[in-house]
Each structure stands twice: as C-alpha cells, then as structure tokens.
Specification:
alpha/beta, Rossmann fold, elongated, binds S-adenosylmethionine
Length: 241
Amino acid sequence: MRLTGRRLADRSPRSTWRPIRGLSRKWQGLRLEFDYRYGRSARNVARRNSRRAYEKLYAADDLLSEYLVPERLEFYDEVASIASHYVRRSVVDFGCGSGNLLRAVLDRAADSCEGRPQRVLALDHARSAVKRTADLVPEAERRVFDLMRDDLGGERFDLVLCTEVLEHLRRPGIARDRLAAACAPGGTILITVPDGAIDAWQGHVNFWTEDGLASFLEPIGATTVDRIDAGRGLLALVRPA
Ligand SMILES: C[S@@+](CC[C@H](N)C(=O)[O-])C[C@H]1O[C@@H](n2cnc3c(N)ncnc32)[C@H](O)[C@@H]1O
C-alpha cells in the first residue's frame, strides 16, 4: 500500500503521543477532582457533620490548622469584640470546638472593664475538642457534653455562647431550649450561624435567614439579629425574659 502525505504525517512521533497526553491530562483532572471531593482535608471531614468527624478534625494538627484559616480567626475576634461586653461573672460555651473563640472572648474581657469571670465552662460532644480547649483555655472547666441529651443540672451563666453549631443540628429547637435554660436572669445568649440566604455548605442542615433566625429564637427571649463576617454570618443576642 502506498502511504499518502497525510498518513505519513499521522505516523510522526508527536501525533503518536497526543492521545496518550490527552488521557494523562484527563486522569490528572479526575484525580484532582477525587481528592477535592474525598481526600483528606478539613473541608471533607467537616462536611460529614458527625461527632466522629469532629473527633478527627480536632485530633489532627494538620486538619485543624487547615480549618483555622486567618478569616476564621478574624471571625472569632469580631464575635469576641461583641461577646466580651456580656461576660460578667460566668461564661459557658456550647460546642466550644478548638477553644479559640472562648480564648478570644476571655482575652477581650480581661482587656476591658469586664475583667475575668469567676466561672468558665467549655462543652463539646467531641472529646478531642475538649482536649484542645484544655490547652488553649486552661482556666475553663471542660466537659464532654451532648447538646441533644445532656443538661447542666440547673447551673446558669451570665453569658451563654453557641457559635456555628445550631446549623449542624437536626433538632435545633432542643438545643435552643437548653441554651435558654443555661442563661442566668439578666444574662445574654450569643448565637452565630451563617446567613442561610447565601450558605450552601453540605455539612449544614439548617439555613436561617435574618428574619428566620429571629423567629426561631423569639420563643426564648427578646432577640436582635445583626450581620457579621462581612455579611456572611448572623449574630443573635437573646435576652431571656
Ligand atoms: C463548626 S464547629 C464550631 C466550633 C466553635 N463553636 C467555633 O465557633 O469554632 C461545630 C461544633 O459543634 C460541636 N457539636 C456538634 N453537635 C454537637 C452536639 N450535639 N453537642 C455538643 N457539641 C456539638 C462540634 O463537635 C463542633 O465542635
């Protein structure tokens, strides 16, 4: 058979490798996509939204440092600048996570006229979170505590914190009522959640808008809701009657 000019060109080394290179690029793309969706990362662990997943996140230094990005630390600082005004004698943090928020609140309060509270309690259902908080907030009593099941036996606090937790809970009404039960007369409950109007994170099960959050919290007390975190989050202050 005679080879035409075109057939000769097709047999050049460049054209032989072209399909292989194409396949290799496709494979790399698939691997990147797979790692992004299922690989070991703080994002993929937190997305599972289970106690086991949080145990893993707070136990691993690499995952936690990935989670505590500068924006998250700035968020804690912004929340602490508000929360520190309500500290008075006692503070409890429900779902304390790494303890960074509680640390920021106590430091801010110590720097202001609020001073140091006599009693600080940090609670989380993940044991590894409670352990992290022990390093960061040694002055706090720490406890493994499930917001869905456990109660504080009637103990009450001047400031009740619950940041970035309620959006993870399948029955948030139970948690809301526990927060109210833990608030001392004249005390304040401070809650943050992402703005559900723009949030689409797969690890969340509740998506409250500003008005929706106010309606959800009003049964436990007078509520104000403001935007924080450059408009991405909602911060509610509740004063139980
Ligand atoms: C997104 S993290 C927020 C942690 C911390 N409050 C913050 O602002 O960084 C959610 C936290 O809620 C805790 N959590 C989730 N469900 C809980 C439950 N039923 N009881 C107690 N803690 C819970 C998780 O272990 C995790 O530490």
